[in-house]
Amino acid sequence: MRRISTFLITTVAATAALALSTGPVFASPPTPPSASTAATELASLTVKAEGSTTGYSRDKFPHWIIQSGTCDTREEVLKRDGTGVQVDSSCHPTAGSWYSVYDKQTFTNSSDVDIDHIVPLAEAWKSGASGWTQAKRQEFANNLTISQLIAVSASSNRSKGDRDPSEWKPTNTAVHCMYARYWIWVKYTYKLSLQSTEKTALQQMLGTC
Fold first, then answer.
1. Residue 147 burial (10 A CB sphere; 0-12, 13-18, 19+)
2. From its phi and psi, is residue 104 left (phi > 0), alpha (psi between -120 and 50) or beta?
């Protein structure tokens, strides 16, 4: 009996230690390609001077569109990235929690959470989206099939603004590898260009993988 009790105590302690070491449980965007694949994709992207914001408007990237039933893109991301999320008949979250990987904050009120475009809309405009059709820009702004959208704290999203990785990175350095992989996947999917400083920053972030 004593041997069984000792085993149970040891198992519980180990489980608790694992839970503490792994940190908060959270959902996330679709898993991007591996770091090695991301490096290959990064190498294939066109490097050139960034375009201007002339003619840019967020209205040229229509969002949030209805994705399913009464749920728009923002609400779908809140459901996907949250824990224990419950919604009403209008798909508005009435319960749940959201862990922001950018700054390691947890929220229980969805109004404190922003949906970040990994590659900002203005950044996309300057990198090639200015020449797209409105329909393609709408797809880009609402794409749930790649890692373009993520639920994070409103404060971190607004701190980031339209800046690329050479100008802004998550304060949580533990996610720099994943953030670079997210960013590269989006730019590679849409064949967007990048600046040399942006490429260098992404290579450095991949170096943390």
1. buried
2. left
**Average pLDDT over the chain, rounded to an integer:** 90
Per-residue DSSP letter, 98:
E
Q: How many CB atoms lie within 10 A of CB 33?
A: 15
Residue with tokens 């090695």: 36
Query: Within 13 A of 165's CA, how many CA atoms are on the CB side?
Result: 28
How wide is the angle at C-alpha 142 spanned by C-alphas 96 and 124, nearest 5°?
Answer: 125
Q: How far apart are the first and last CA of the chain?
A: 46
pTM: 0.87
Question: pLDDT tens across 29-67, in order?
Answer: 999 999 999 999 999 999 999 999 999 999 999 999 999
Q: Please, are residues 150 and 77 in contact by the beta-carbon 8 Å criterion?
A: yes
